[in-house]
User: Fold this.
Amino acid sequence: MTGGQQPVSVGIVGGGLMGKEVAVAFARWAALTDHPARPELTHVCDVDPAALAWFERIPSVTSRSTDYHDLLGPDGPEVLYIAVRHDLHERLYVDAIEAGKSLLAEKPFGIDLRSAGAIAAAAQRHPESFVRCSSEMPFFPGAQAAIARVTSGSLGRIIEAHSGFSHSSDLDLRKPINWKRQAKYCGVNGVLNDLGMHALHVPLRLGWQPDRVFAVLQDLVPSRPGPDGDLVTCDTIENATLLCTATDRFGGDGAQPFPLHITTKRIDPGQKNSWSLRVLGMNGGVAFSTRYPKTLRVMSVADGEQVWQEVEMGSQSCFATATGGIFEFGFSDAILQMWASYLAERAGQLGDRFGCVTPEEAVDSHRVFAAALDSWARSEVVQLP
Ligand SMILES: NC(=O)c1ccc[n+]([C@@H]2O[C@H](COP(=O)([O-])OP(=O)(O)OC[C@H]3O[C@@H](n4cnc5c(N)ncnc54)[C@H](O)[C@@H]3O)[C@@H](O)[C@H]2O)c1
Assistant:
């Protein structure tokens, strides 16, 4: 124990974009003013030696390996963060769980619904392995404030809600092909596998389980330059627009269905990496986008008129930090908060704070993705159980 914090050894499998992001989030752990645990990044695994070499800058890393099996034994870390291609999720996640390791698994938690179910079943067979799935954007203070307004019931009967995640870098047709743009690695769900969990985490946590789905899916870019400059097939959907129905239980007007828009877009001109949530009710509304991370927009109804106001958000999220309350919050802060939430819940000390995606929620998100593909293929509304 250091300063009352239980040390927890962590290993990263997949030291690419996200593996590095998580490593640097741990380096800022001291910013958390009151947390039961302290992660120590001890092990890193990547098949690419260049990715492994990057971790030489992290002094706590004592083991670098190209084979993830090296991390699964008793000398390996207690917790694994696995951030690899989607076609590798099932094998690596199930092996980690069966080795008794706790796991923060990157989304989409398996390449498809079957695969997500197999991972969730492994987690159920091994309760000693604490398993959650990554989704950090709801830890932005503006998102937390929006969620609090919804759960307070103050919005009244829900009129409609929108939850989405938008990028735009795919507008650049010169951008080279990568695994995220090839169905055999990313999955046929395409952008839904990339961004869908982000858009569904909050609705699912609010109990807004979609029960009907109508989807419009767009494959906007058929090919991209390969390593030698020749065009290579880019067979994943870029944009997915889902109109669902869900039922609200916070508005105090009985269980009422409402339209829930879920949008995941790799090409949404005007956005770069914007997660957004907008909920409108008969008594009030709330809107937040990470595009404007300091601004929460709230609506109230006065004398029958809609009154929109802005509330400036500061730095504080679920877990208090030493960061000045008026300072800005960003992506790396969200990663820190997500890990704080994961390790607090693992230690049984989450309390009523916002938790990471559960295996059940991850499987539910895949049910929605599968329904969306089915809906688009048949041009029909698909009913979910
Ligand atoms: N939470 C988020 O905001 C977020 C953002 C981006 C990506 N992701 C997810 O993170 C995961 C990884 O995405 P990324 O962008 O970091 O990808 P990446 O391609 O940048 O990194 C993946 C790394 O895995 C390594 N790798 C491949 N096979 C391996 C194996 N068998 N063992 C160990 N390492 C192996 C690669 O060499 C590479 O360094 C995906 O599931 C993706 O959907 C999440």
The first strand starts at residue 6 and ends at 13.
